[in-house]
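Researcher: We're teaching a course module on how sequence relates to structure. For the next exercise, students receive a sequence and then see the predicted structure as tokens, so they can try to spot secondary structure elements on their own. Here is the exercise chain.
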Amino acid sequence: MDEKEKWIGPKALSLLRPGAFRRYIIGSLISDSGTWMQMMAQSWVMSGLTNKAILLGLVNFAAGLPALALAPTAGALASFLRFCWALRSPMKCQRSQRLCLSW
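Model: And here is the predicted structure for the students to work with:
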């Protein structure tokens, strides 16, 4: 490999130039750092209250439990709503066309 092929700095940073992708990456960075800070704070408080490792593990498990429980339901709901939107959108378009043509 040449020295130019190994150094990918400008190529990697050029991906951040489009607006939508840059906003997504920056928002994801902020959200993930907030989640990390929350988990560290919860662990710090629990380790300050007690020195038991099992309780520290339970706090981290409880922090991830809502996402584990709600992810399948939310995915199914999103898939269903997208299906309903795909069916209802052409019907609404046809109704509006009929209304315009009936005048």
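Model: If you want an answer key for the exercise: Helices lie at 3-6, 9-14, 19-49, 53-102. The chain has a mean pLDDT of 80.
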